[in-house]
Amino acid sequence: MKTSVLLDVLASSLLAGEANVEEAHARLVHTLGRNFRWLRPLAARYVKAFAQRIRPHRREVIAFLRSDIGLKDARERYPHEIEIEHWLTEPQIMQPAAPAASWNLPTIESAGALSEWLAVSPSQLLWFADLKGLTAKLNSPRLRHYHYRVLRKPSGDFRLIEIPKPRIKDIQRQILFHILNKVPSHTSVHGFLRDRSIRTFVAPHVGRRVVLRMDLQDFFPTFGAARIATFFRIAGYPESVADLLAGLCTTTTPRSLWSNLAKQGDYTAAYAARDLYSRPHLPQGAPTSPALANICTYRTDCRLTGLTKSAGAHFTRYADDLAFSGDRDFEKGVDRFSIHVAAILMEEGFTVNHRKTRIMRQGVRQHLAGAVVNDKTNIPRPDFDVLKATLTNCIRKGQQTQNRDAHLDFRAHLTGRVAFVESLNAAKGRRLRSLLHQISWQP
């Protein structure tokens, strides 16, 4: 028997259930039809190797078997006795990890079932998932799944907004509504969740002696396709389905996009962005990306919450913005505390933007996500004055004279800004709302 066939069948046997020694040993015995003495030690080594991995990848298990000294010795000692007694011909089934068993996710156990669930043909499914990154190599923008908008950060780096086209956006919305929205979120998370907002994000930090603000660099591109596929395997989906779901929710940016910027003289920033976005990642702009980012940050949120409670402080997160606050005891050790936070984030695969780290005591303006939190939630006075002046000029000179950034729906833009102020300070919001109602929107 070919070694590759044996390893593939043994890997399938080990991956067919939960990773514990008794079950793994029983599955190996069933597959080979004999209880060789070396099978239990092999099962024990397998469980130990993947103790921190709820759902290892098939190729990782095959690599483990290929390098296992005990299995290699058994193949040499019993070359004619190791035969496959029971071939695994059963279809793959949903195998959620223990925490995911109660999520009530849709049952999708094959690529064909996934294409049927999404109402696309199998060939269209492979095209949209793009597991080989072929669309990033195409020169025709019409054949790509995303529109691109490059923004320049104040630091000089680039931020890329990747807007999915209608067909793949509909697919992502279905994944969001029927799968991702059923996954519970950590209580410390306040971004992109129903009944949570910037107001709930900053509320625990109002009136504290010290507020620590930290920022994660390149938040969405940090999450690679392998990390997303791991989540879908933990949710119970077979490996082939999990890889396709991950492909539908991630993308690879064409390198030519950054080459054009480099030709304009932005060599360092453009090439850094090219290296970052040329790997499969969560696109900022896809409806599934915020939910997946929150899900994949769950363990980080748990660790930071535990650290914060041990320091007698408070912690909340809104996307890539992290906020910690406390009173006198926390203020004494806030510098050392920030180092511990950075260490946890680094261990979890994130990069801290240290230029945006701020330790804000009561003597200065304590601000988080555009809100002031010294005594009560409020909007910064300069931002309020600018918005008030814009609304007043819209009344006096006409709204078309104030749309300097060419917003497609300037009325909706101003309405959203006024609603934000209302959520932080009701009295100031009412004053601005009164001005908004006086604007004439006739062309």
Number of helices: 20
N- to C-terminal separation? 79 Å
Side-by-side strand order of the widest sheet: 4-5-3-6
Helix content: 40-55%
Number of strands: 8
- C-alpha geometry: globular
Topology diagram in text:
Blueprint: H1 3-14, H2 21-32, H3 39-49, H4 58-67, H5 69-77, H6 111-118, H7 122-129, E1 146-152, E2 158-164, H8 166-178, H9 198-202, E3 210-215, H10 225-234, H11 239-249, H12 255-263, H13 267-277, H14 289-296, H15 298-310, E4 314-318, E5 321-326, H16 328-332, H17 334-347, E6 358-361, E7 367-368, E8 371-372, H18 381-397, H19 410-424, H20 426-437
Antiparallel strand pairs: 1-2, 3-5, 3-6, 4-5, 7-8
Helix pairs in contact: 1-2, 1-4, 2-3, 7-11, 10-11, 12-13, 15-17, 18-20, 19-20
Could you please describe the fold and organization of this structure?
The chain is an alpha+beta fold and 443 residues long. The protein is built from 20 helices and eight strands. α10 (225-234) packs across α11. The longest helix has 17 residues, at 381-397. It is globular and about 90 Å long.
Which features does this protein show?
443 residues; alpha+beta; two-stranded antiparallel ribbon; 20 helices; 48% helix
